[in-house]
Amino acid sequence: RCSRDWSSDVCSSDLELVRERLNDRLKIDGILATMFDPRTLHSRNILNQLNEEYGNTVFRSVIKMTVKFKDSSSRGRPVTQYAPSSEAAELYRAVAREMVDRGCSP
């Protein structure tokens, strides 16, 4: 996971560090944008930059910031169990479907 203040250089260097020190066969199935707030220019710019630099590697599904994540975390439960019919849970189900469609490794 790259830092909230995303930088492609940081992400790339982190990935290379993991490959060098822990797993030289590490494969990236995709890049998932999380904590996305469509109301902010910053979030939109980062998502645009990800798409420009990494193209189809970036999942179409985006995890928007919602209070349900904080609520479920404080209860110690995944959002898909805490609020299964919430938008937050549906966002993660969409990511799972997209991963299956792409043939991502488990």
Please describe what this structure looks like.
With 106 residues, the protein is α+β, with helices and mostly antiparallel strands. It is built from five helices and two strands, in the order H-E-H-E-H-H-H. A two-stranded parallel sheet has the order 1-2. Helix 2 links the parallel strand 1 and strand 2. The longest helix is centred in the last third of the chain and has 16 residues. It is globular.
C-alpha termini separation = 17 Å
Number of strands: 2
Q: What value does the Rg take, in angstroms?
A: 15 Å
Class based on secondary structure composition and strand pairing: alpha+beta
Spatial order of the strands forming the largest sheet:
1-2
- Average predicted local confidence, pLDDT: 87
Main sheet attributes: strand count, strand direction, barrel closure: 2 strands, parallel
Helix content: 40-55%
Low-confidence stretches: none
Tally of separate helices: 5
Q: How does the overall form come out from the CA principal axes?
A: globular
Q: What is the H-and-E element order?
A: HEHEHHH
Proportion of strand residues: 5-15%
Secondary structure layout plus pairing:
Elements: H1 8-21, E1 31-36, H2 41-54, E2 58-64, H3 67-74, H4 79-82, H5 87-102
Parallel strand pairs: 1-2
Features:
106 residues; alpha+beta; two-stranded parallel ribbon; globular
Quick recap:
This protein is α+β, with helices and mostly antiparallel strands. It is 53% helix and 12% strand. It has helices at 8-21, 41-54, 67-74, 79-82, 87-102, and strands at 31-36, 58-64.
